[in-house]
Amino acid sequence: MRLSEIIKRRRSVRKFKSDPISKDLLEKIMDLATWAPSAMNRQDWHFVILQGSQKDDFLKISTTAFEHFKPVLEKNFKDKPKIIEGMKIFFETYGNAPVIIMAYAGKLPTGQDDVWSVSLAVQNLMLSAYEEGLGTVWTDGVVFTKEKEINDLIGIKDRKLVCVIPIGYPAEEPKAPPRREGRIQWIGF
Ligand SMILES: Cc1cc2nc3c(=O)[nH]c(=O)nc-3n(C[C@H](O)[C@H](O)[C@H](O)COP(=O)(O)O)c2cc1C
Fold first, then answer.
1. What is the pTM of this model?
2. Which fold has domain 3-168?
3. Domain-wise residue ranges, the chain
4. H-helix segments, the chain
């Protein structure tokens, strides 16, 4: 597959088959993630890959995160209970993904969280996963409400959790959302 096809065909996947992913394949994808550019070439990102009982413990935390969003969702999706139910199930299960990846930022010399470099690495990760027939989705709703609990579970201190990425063989084929117009401004052409 050409890179342009990979970029256009990758979709956010929120339902996964239970098939396990081999450690070799995960290692290949994580290696490609780390070939992203990084601020001052510090490569200061940190990934935690969860499977098994610690993944289940993460899901317990994620389940409680839904309660935070429920009132807002009930207001915004008054006539669409199925959407709310779907989100509830996703928070509880993360689409039954066999593996969940936590992406942490490093620090810049200024002390700022380097959320940018890790985000580029995550894009590499998601595109590489797609090339290998795997699905992923960037999630951060759980980060906004439960970052401390997740970090305590994993034993991480002093790093910003940027996103949580379930990964697995897709059990759905989401449609591509159309591109929005007017987002690119040309000057001097
Ligand atoms: C910064 C960011 C935050 C996102 N947060 C969530 C999230 O919390 N939960 C979720 O299911 N999807 C999340 N997404 C995925 C988007 O909903 C998805 O990328 C978008 O709908 C476009 O679909 P596509 O990835 O299939 O092109 C997020 C994506 C980005 C880039």
1. 0.97
2. NADH Oxidase (3.40.109)
3. 3-168
4. 3-9, 23-33, 53-76, 81-93, 115-131, 141-154
